[in-house]
Specification:
heterodimer, A: about 290 residues, mainly alpha, MetI-like fold, 2 domains, globular, B: MetI-like fold, two-stranded antiparallel sheet, about 70% helix, about 0% strand
Chain lengths: ~290, ~325
């Protein structure tokens, strides 16, 4: 290692450390604000290290006075159900497209690829969901629009074609295993790498989605976390259960509670990241060129 | 079955469907879903030629021919949003891919796997955040009275800067935010590409006395060219979609500040706003169709170029 510690290397390391600090700095500022006393924020502004440490914002949120816990629940349900359905439908679809004995697979594959070329755009999409499918203001509308994605189907199909050996599938067939049974008991277990990475990215997508709710959810009880976060960004009084009287405003954390909501919304991602990081990296290289 | 066969051949479509009925059954939910969620909206583009009335629906709204498009192309907005979309995307391609390439090569150069992976992981983290969170993080810096940036600048500047009402700063803020969120993604892709380069090239170069800088210029960069060119062409195919489809940054980060529109309004935010705040279906679907059609031509073109260059990376 001694030889490697040249001036050149030290410069690069310093550069990357500065860069990483810069990348994470905004997160630390928001974290610090969420851990500061409300009054202190009003007087001295934000800082990287809390000037007047206080857990009031978190106590306030977790005491159930704000709509955040409910939004957490909505987001959790949507993320889990959405990811599961997405994987189930897409993997079955992709598997049937990957089998050479399926004669019409080329037509179906063309239908999948064409969606990457042309889309109807936002407005017909919105009218379909709201006027014709009547999904507005339902929990299901947060899941339904994202059950199949062309890119994921293509990635899975290529994985099934190249990584799952045809001989295993054929010998299972000779042993009398039904096609669906083979798929569930042999193909899927062999495909955990692709399922894990696509599942992770799908889960992150559902977790981060505020856009669908902004167009299709009006009932505040169905707000997912990210949309709640977006709605309170410019709206000071939203988080407070009482009408905004001077006294209530002084007692209840507001700015700090909003920043705490932000931290709570990225919390699960940051906590899971060290453990799942290698799947994210693998997933990026897997779908890199096709995505 | 036997006697039927003797009389006439079974209908080929039906016999194929029956022979592989399990596979077609597995295909069915996905296929029906695509037809409903992707192909019905494609038919729905006809509302760009209607004076769409939500109560009457697609079948009974009044047809107005090209009126929506005439209105669109006579307004100033269409030039502004087209320019901004393409301007930022070009900056994003140059900055995103250029910096990621540099980072990946430098991380490889330091030769320390543990630290190298740590840097990559930290740079990749923002890629997993939503732009809503990005908006909060940015606000912690740019808030006029409490933000970190104005506190730092207060030593040199008398008046606090109103970041959210000065368009000129946003031509820098938007690309910076894009790099913050996406550079890790591209760096990971390039790093994987570097791992794929055979070490024999470097050994041979070392024997010939090539410096590390020279090795990077003469070996690493040329061998990464296929990935780089493919990535650029793929993004070029999406150049008509703000931030290549991840457009919500243009809506969230400026906090809907109207004075910033000249620097932050893009095609997608324009469609979204016309739909959400003005309920202007005709206008927003006309913009959407304009975007889809130009986008279609560009994807076909970029895919054609990718095929010429590297067949395996082509989308179709």
């Amino acid at each position: 290692m001694g030889k490697r510690l040249s001036l050149f290397n030290v410069t690069i390391h310093t550069g990357f450390i500065v860069l990483c600090v810069l990348f994470l700095l905004p997160l630390f500022v928001v974290l610090s604000v969420s851990l500061t006393d409300e009054q202190s924020i009003f007087q001295t502004g934000y800082s990287v290290i809390p000037r007047d440490f206080s857990l009031n914002a978190y106590i306030y949120i977790l005491s159930g006075q704000s709509p955040i816990l409910r939004a957490y629940l909505v987001t959790a349900v949507v993320t889990v159900a959405g990811t599961f359905l997405h994987l189930a439908i897409s993997s079955m679809f992709a598997y049937s497209l990957s089998r050479p004995e399926v004669k019409y697979r080329h037509i179906a594959s063309f239908l999948v690829v064409f969606c990457l070329l042309f889309s109807g755009g936002l407005v017909p999409w919105y009218i379909l969901l709201s006027k014709y499918l009547h999904l507005k203001d339902t929990l299901f509308v947060l899941i339904f629009p994202y059950l199949v994605s062309s890119v994921n189907v293509i990635i899975m199909r290529i994985f099934f074609q190249t990584t799952v050996p045809s001989s295993i599938i054929e010998s299972a067939r000779i042993d009398g295993s039904g096609e669906f049974h083979t798929f569930r008991k042999i193909v899927l277990p062999l495909s955990t790498p692709v399922l894990a990475t696509i599942g992770l990215f799908t889960a992150v997508f559902f977790w981060n989605d505020w856009f669908t709710a902004s167009l299709l959810i009006e009932n505040s009880k169905l707000y997912p976390l990210q949309f709640l976060l977006q709605s309170i960004m410019n709206n000071i009084a939203f988080l407070q259960s009482n009408p905004l009287t001077a006294k209530a405003a002084a007692m209840q954390p507001d700015e700090t509670a909003r920043m705490a909501t932000c931290i709570l919304s990225v919390g699960p991602i940051i906590l899971a990241y060290p453990f799942l990081q290698k799947y994210f990296v693998k997933g990026l290289t897997l779908g890199a060129v096709k995505a | 079955m036997k006697s039927q066969n003797a009389i006439r051949k079974p209908i080929p479509v039906l016999s194929e469907l029956l022979r592989n009925k399990i596979f077609y059954a597995m295909m069915f939910p996905g296929l029906i879903y695509m037809i409903v969620m992707y192909y019905l909206p494609m038919v729905g583009v006809v509302i760009a030629f209607q004076q769409f009335n939500p109560v009457k629906g697609i079948f009974y709204s009044k047809w107005v021919g090209l009126d929506n498009f005439k209105f669109l192309f006579q307004s100033d907005a269409v030039f502004q949003i087209t320019f901004n979309t393409i301007f930022y995307n070009l900056v994003f391609i140059a900055l995103g891919i250029g910096l990621a390439l540099a980072f990946a090569i430098l991380i490889n150069e330091i030769g320390n796997r543990v630290l190298g992976n740590a840097y990559k992981s930290i740079l990749l983290l923002p890629y997993l955040f939503s732009w809503v969170v990005g908006g909060y993080l940015l606000y912690s810096f740019l808030s006029m009275d409490k933000g970190i940036l104005n506190q730092l600048l207060s030593r040199w500047v008398d008046e606090p800067i109103l970041w959210y009402s000065e368009p000129k700063y946003w031509r820098w803020i938007i690309p910076a935010a894009y790099v913050w969120k996406n550079v890790g993604y591209f760096a990971v892709i390039f790093a994987a590409g570097i791992t794929g380069i055979s070490s024999e090239y470097y050994e041979a170069a070392r024997i010939d006395g090539a410096s590390r800088f020279k090795q990077a210029i003469k070996i690493t960069i040329p061998l990464l060219a296929p990935i780089t060119i493919t990535l650029i062409l793929l993004q070029a195919g999406k150049i008509f979609y703000a931030a290549f489809g991840d457009w919500t940054m243009f809506y969230i980060l400026p906090k809907e500040s109207g004075v910033l529109f000249e620097a932050t309004n893009v095609i997608d935010t324009h469609v979204y706003r016309s739909l959400k705040t003005m309920n202007d279906f005709g206008m927003s679907s006309a913009v959407g169709l304009y975007q889809s059609c130009v986008g279609f031509v560009l994807v076909i073109l970029s895919n054609y170029l990718i095929r010429l260059y590297d067949r395996d990376s082509a989308l179709f």
